[in-house]
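User: Predict dGTPase's structure from this.
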Amino acid sequence: MMQWEKLLSSGRFDPLSSKKEESATIRTEFERDYDRIIFSGPFRNLQDKTQVFPLPEHHFVHTRLTHSLEVSSVGRSLGKSVGEYLLEKYPVLSEKGIHATDIGAIVAAAALTHDIGNPPFGHAGEEAISDFFRHHPYGYVWQSHISTQEWADLCNFEGNAQGFRMLVSKKNGLQLSYATLAAFTKYPRPSLIFERDKERRSQKKFGFFSDQKEEFNHLAEALGIGKANTDCWLRHPLAFLVEAADDICYSIIDLEDGCTLGLVSIDQTISLLGKILAEKFQPEKLEKYSFEPQKLAVLRAMAIGKLVEESVQAFIEKEEEILNGQFDQSLTDIIPSAQALAEISNLSVVKIYRSKPVLEKEAAGFQVLEGLLEVFSQALNHKYYQTDLFSGKDKSILRLLPDDFPLEGWGEQANPYPLLRALIDYISGMTDKFALSLYRKVKGISLPGT
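Assistant:
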């Protein structure tokens, strides 16, 4: 059974170093996590990564960055409320200097990073990267050079695993606390496992690539996180709160954005949010607000508040089952408002996620990311493996890669998996606009400066 005093360790992730950082005098370790993330390049890039909708000219809709900030805010509320309960139940936590605000800060920091590994163009970008290796000649050409596990990584690009990779990367220099990293990891397993337990939410996707398995094992050992089976670990309990914060925000905020853009009527939106509020819903009070955005803002705030209360209560009720690994579901699937959230989700699929602007964005994402992967993968293959095909065009393409890209040491005798991971790091880390601009240039659609 996991122990809270170990799960809330303020130690920092750096398995190759025993150096201890100086203790903070003003900020706690977990507040430092939050600040490091806010000031990091990968987090800033989220401001130009699509959440759901392409950015319109006349309406504000959410980007990955604004979505992440909101999820973090909800996560802090969830964590702090749960923290107050835990400190009352486990006095040893107070004796060790842990406060409810520390638990709120862990969830807030982990929630801030929950989308940090997402590529340009959202989930369509994930599928585009996966499909390139599965189906494109210059994608599956690499299969014979790497292991089965590594090939599974490439054919199943996963934003959660890419996020873990970015957070532990020495290049990004975040060196976050063990607790924040573990709370971030909603799916603590590799891409290829013998058999997935479909009853366990934590095994629905995967949370790290094969070359990060030892790093995650180090993290799990440091926090006393056990395994569900040979290949899969249990979740850190606070990962359930990070997931709940995300579930709450994207359900409510995507609906609000859909209403703002006219894809869902204001009456339907009010009705759906009212079902969450149940007996607290008083539609006559909305009449004092003259503008639709005001009505939406009031209902959104009330609905999120209700969902936070219900999620905290669900966590408290399942806390011991979570610690011993018996509970493994989404909290928002077991709260009283679960049916109302399901209704919102079903409507969002039909009216929002399959709307013309979203589908057009996804189609563009497939074209752009496949095109970028094609030109760079082809050039790398020609330089190191099919060397007789290496051309002047390939040389020009490779010069476009970042200065720190690992272009030495590859060839028939070398496993190119790290090379391909570096290429995916580069492309998945792009903003939507940069990816589109570079695609146009390498495909000759536009010239520099035009």
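The chain is about 55% helix and 0% strand.
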